[in-house]
């Protein structure tokens, strides 16, 4: 049984560009949450998707958007990239509100 | 803000038990205590969680005090691969996980 998978593993972008990160949940999970982890900090909640809708959102600007597909996979989109968006982006999946399991993350570097 | 307090760092000798404390004095009745760990540059790994009773799985044991204001994660025989940042999180289930700074555990040969 594959765990949570994320792609790509690493990404380099320049300021002003847009990026899309992808996440496939564990088998049987229907909920996907996204977190941002800056260097030396704990993960910070961005938003959560359930039944293809954003269910909860953290304190992140509208430049951060997402989508969940019928197969429960999810995308995180970030527009107009800033240097401060450089971070490890983590996806976690769960069955509804149960235990969240994290993927390996996508490391984004904005130059 | 995180509702837990953990020591910033701890050392443990390889093969000995690692006991990681966590204070959560404002925990609510419906909040679980969750433990995750994060090995350098990897995604957080779920370890264990509990509500009131002590819990044990193949990775660790979780001891929760009777008043639920503190808990201890026990790794019975620490190995070098257990070196990581350990996060204690109180979580009712229907809200996002809120991570604090965690405890950096160093297992020493």
The chain-level structural class of chain A is mainly beta
H/E series of chain A: EEEEEEEEEEE
Helix share, percent of chain A: under 10%
Q: Work out the strand percent of chain A.
A: over 45%
Q: Please report the number of helical segments of chain A.
A: 0
Number of strands of chain B: 9
User: What characterizes the major β-sheet of chain A?
Assistant: 7 strands, mixed
Distance between the termini of chain B: 35 Å
Kindly report the greatest chain-chain contact and the residue count on each side: A-B, 24 and 21 residues
Q: Tell me, what's the shape of chain B?
A: globular
> Spans of chain B of 5+ residues with little confidence (pLDDT < 50)?
none
Compact summary:
The complex is a heterodimer of chains A (111) and B (109). Chain A has strands at 5-7, 10-13, 19-24, 31-37, 44-50, 53-57, 64-68, 74-78, 87-94, 101-102, 106-110.
Any overview of this molecule?
The complex is a heterodimer of chains A (111) and B (109). Chain A is 0% helix and 51% strand. With 111 residues, chain A is an all-beta fold. In chain A, strands 2, 4, 5, 6, 9, 10 and 11 form a seven-stranded mixed sheet that branches. Chain A is globular, with a radius of gyration of 13 Å. The mean pLDDT of chain A is 96. With 109 residues, chain B is mainly β. Chain B has strands at 9-13, 18-23, 32-38, 45-50, 55-56, 61-64, 70-75, 84-91, 103-108. In chain B, the strands form two sheets. A five-stranded mixed sheet of chain B has the order 1-9-8-3-4, with no helix packed on it. Chain B has a four-stranded antiparallel sheet with strand order 2-7-6-5, with no helix packed on it. The radius of gyration of chain B is 13 Å and the shape is globular. Chain B starts with 8 loop residues before the first strand and ends with a strand. The model of chain B has no long low-confidence stretch (mean pLDDT 95). Chain A binds chain B through residues 4, 33, 35, 41-45, 48, 56, 58, 88, 90, 92, 97-105, 107, and chain B through 2, 34, 36, 41-46, 49, 87, 93-102.
């Amino acid at each position: 049984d594959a765990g949570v998978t994320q792609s790509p593993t690493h990404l380099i972008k320049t300021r002003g560009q847009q990026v899309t990160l992808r996440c496939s949940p564990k088998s049987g999970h229907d909920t996907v949450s996204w977190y941002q982890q800056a260097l030396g900090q704990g993960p910070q909640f961005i938003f959560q998707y359930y039944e293809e809708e954003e269910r909860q959102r953290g304190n992140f600007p509208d430049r951060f958007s997402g989508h969940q597909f019928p197969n429960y996979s999810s995308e995180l989109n970030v527009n107009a990239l800033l240097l401060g968006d450089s971070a490890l982006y983590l996806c976690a999946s769960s069955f509804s509100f149960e235990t969240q399991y994290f993927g390996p993350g996508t490391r984004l570097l904005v130059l | 803000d995180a509702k837990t307090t953990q020591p910033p760092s701890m050392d443990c000798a390889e093969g000995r038990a690692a006991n990681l404390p966590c204070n959560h004095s404002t925990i609510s009745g419906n909040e679980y205590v969750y433990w995750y760990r994060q090995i350098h540059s990897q995604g957080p790994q779920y370890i264990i969680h509990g509500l009131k009773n002590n819990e044990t799985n193949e990775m660790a044991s979780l001891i929760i005090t009777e008043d639920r204001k503190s808990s201890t994660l026990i790794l019975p025989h620490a190995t070098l691969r257990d070196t990581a940042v350990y996060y204690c999180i109180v979580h009712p289930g229907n809200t996002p996980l809120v991570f604090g700074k965690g405890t950096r555990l160093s297992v020493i040969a």
